[in-house]
Amino acid sequence: MNNIQPADRINQVEEYYFSIKLKELDKLRKEGKPIINLGIGNPDMAPAPEVIEEITQQSQVETNHGYQSYVGIPELREAFSSWYERYYSVKTDANTEILPLMGSKEGIMHITLAFLNPGDGVLVPNPGYPTYASASKIAQATLIPYNLDENNGWLPNLDELEKQDLSNVKLMWINYPNMPTGANASISFFEKVIAFGKKHNIVICNDNPYSFILNDSPQSILSIEGAKDIAIELNSLSKSHNMAGWRVGAAFSNPTFIQYILRVKSNMDSGMFKPLQLAAVKALQLNSNWYSAVNEEYKQRRVLVQEIMDILECTYDTNQTGMFVWARIPDKYKDSGELSDKILYGVDVFITPGLIFGETGKRYIRISLCTKQEVLIEAKERIEKIIKQ
Ligand SMILES: Cc1ncc(COP(=O)(O)O)c(C=O)c1O
């Protein structure tokens, strides 16, 4: 038809794993397979009723349908600022230190483009959320994966990293509470990583969408004295408020860094639908009962998921945070892909193989808590059958 080749930069990345996998699951469903998807962290519970009520009402207002400000409406920035003060004890200036985003995922791309020149070094966790690496590849940055190890609480070994030449490194991604491992970071780790960033002139970016899920004390890296000088934090309403499809998040940092990110973002979109922003304000104003009620359900689901892991003879830490259970597979399987395929093609249940998060995830699987209890029970019965065969 034509001889057009795509840009080199897209030859470096593949379509997102879940984008491909969801198509496959859809195809299997169309062929009549009763697929249960325990893979993706897509909250199935509804947002709070007052949030739905607000977007419904605001959508009726004639003047609410135009383009919106590139920096979000002031009410939304103020609500994010109060939320950070109330739950993380972090003070931020709503005018200069917060940039609302369409989810934290877009923030990962904007930050990458705002800070990295082609060839600049970027530290990304292995295992880790695949978007850090793919955004870096799109920007033609030099990817420097760093290993997270179960024996080190899934934290980066900063002493080891310091032995490397870091002169070319400009940005480091961290993500605590961590996905996929469910590990939490301590304040003393945050202090160390901030000192590390300052010493080596590396921007530290903490991606923090899971701090309200199965976690007794939500923490922000910005609670460390002076952190804002070198750190950016991404946060999101996707998981904490069951609003993944709404696409609302924010970046928090010093005014200069926020301006750099805005320079990219304001050239890419033209603001968020105003009723959605006003409804997000309501979500951010919810009191702690909201989080407790959501977590009550996740706790019950976690028991069922742990039972599935037991049937699979997988081992796991019972203190994980976030909306997944991450577990080590038995030695008898070649890797987590083999176990995931056995369950998918054997009993139509999809479980995420840890290898998609990097080489160090090869011997782990991840099950999401975003599935109703009755469906988890059905999945458990099916898995029991295939394992006992
Ligand atoms: C670690 C991590 N960061 C970011 C995201 C994206 O979240 P959002 O919906 O806010 O874009 C996810 C979603 O699964 C995630 O697991």
From TrEMBL:
**Reported cofactor(s):** pyridoxal 5'-phosphate
Gene3D superfamilies recorded for this chain?
Aspartate Aminotransferase, domain 1, Type I PLP-dependent aspartate aminotransferase-like (Major domain)
Which residues, by range, are in coiled-coil regions? Answer: none
> What top-level branch of life does the organism fall under?
Bacteria
Boundaries of every Aminotransferase class I/classII large domain copy:
34-379
GO terms, molecular function: transaminase activity
Pfam families in the cross-refs = Aminotran_1_2
Q: Does the entry feature the keyword Transmembrane helix, yes or no?
A: no
UniProt keyword terms in alphabetical order:
Aminotransferase, Transferase
Q: What is its EC number?
A: 2.6.1.-
Root EC class? transferase
PANTHER family named among the record's database cross-references? AMINO ACID AMINOTRANSFERASE (PTHR42832), L-GLUTAMINE--4-(METHYLSULFANYL)-2-OXOBUTANOATE AMINOTRANSFERASE (PTHR42832:SF3)
Q: Which family is this protein grouped under?
A: Belongs to the class-I pyridoxal-phosphate-dependent aminotransferase family.
Q: What protein does this entry describe?
A: Aminotransferase
Q: From which source organism is this entry?
A: Carboxylicivirga linearis
